[in-house]
Write a structure and sequence with these properties.
Length: 129
């Protein structure tokens, strides 16, 4: 069982930055592909970004590409999401997820919430315009 705990959410103005963190309680952290998803009120959960077990491959939704950066520190069992140039439409609950995707670089799989076995409780990000 893997427990994921997100932190770093908050209320910011448009154009500001935030960094989300997700700490995992597993010795096998570097086995998992780690992803960030978000869900806005009245909308379905959507893919934001993912990073391979080694950190060598990163994937982004078009809506956040060039603004968000995903990284991981396997020594600290933590994945991060640096969010820059935030927009009102980035307002959502952000979820961290862990998936046993191995060395897959299939973007359809990596961006699918169905491929992730473990989820955090979410952290709220609110961007005021």
């Amino acid at each position: 069982q893997v427990q994921l705990v997100e932190s770093g959410g908050g209320l910011v103005q448009a154009g500001a930055s935030l960094r989300l963190s997700c700490a995992a309680s597993t010795r096998a952290f570097n086995w998992y592909t780690m992803g960030w998803f978000r869900q806005a009120p009245g909308k379905e959960r959507e893919f934001v970004a993912a990073i391979s077990w080694s950190g060598g491959s990163k994937f982004y939704a078009d809506s956040v590409k060039d603004r968000f950066i995903i990284t991981r520190d396997n020594a600290k069992d933590t994945v991060y999401l640096q969010m820059n140039s935030l927009k009102a439409e980035d307002t959502a609950v952000y979820y961290c997820a862990a998936g046993s995707l191995g060395a897959s670089r299939n973007s359809a799989r990596i961006s699918s919430s169905n491929e992730y076995e473990y989820w955090g409780q979410g952290t709220q990000v609110t961007v005021s315009s």
